[in-house]
Amino acid sequence: MALSKNRFSEGENGCPRKIRISKEPDQRRREIVETALKLFSEKGYEDTTIQDIAEKMNVSPGLCYRYFKSKTEIFAASSEYYAKQAVKQMKIPISQDIPAIEKFNLVINRMLDFSINHYEFESRYNEGSEIRAILLDYVANQWMSVMIPIIEQGIKENIFYCSNVPRTAKFLITGLVHTFHEDMPVDNVQEYMYSFLNFTQDMAARVLGMKAD
Questions:
Q1: Which domains does the chain have, with CATH numbers?
Q2: Which terminus, N or C, of the chain has the lesser number of Cβ atoms within 10 Å?
Q3: Considering the entire predicted model, what is its pTM?
């Protein structure tokens, strides 16, 4: 039976010779980004080099430079990829039959779970402050687009109370997202994240006029 992809061919001495398998540019770029994301999480931005990324992928550093001009560009791409994964998790469809308060809590918990599952990278996120600010605004804006219909539903259900839904959502979500990352400690990150959930519930109760439970 013939194999669809051969990884080895016969060399001059009759010995197997490994064939280099080329990958599509988008696939290779994503591989660099995902590998870098893991290393930035483990070692931090300053202690991670392009050489480290290349070695982890078992390729030459030149291949990384073919797709990115610098480590800063790789970090920016990794952060963007991370932010999009967070948004993807946040936007998983929710049944329209459940009350607004349950939807609200579900979205909050999805974001918390995602952050806890990637706490290593979250704790390193402050190392690229300019990149972080841009991408946190992106996450906040996407989060607002999810929350606004939920708040509107909550108003109809007499659970939430506010006069300007878009402005209230922006005040609440943008403030929470940036505060969450700006106050991120170096140690005990997961413990901090759990405690931030209580803070989020308290702030939501105050801003939306609902009970904290």
A1: 23-71 (1.10.10.60), 73-208 (1.10.357.10)
A2: N
A3: 0.75
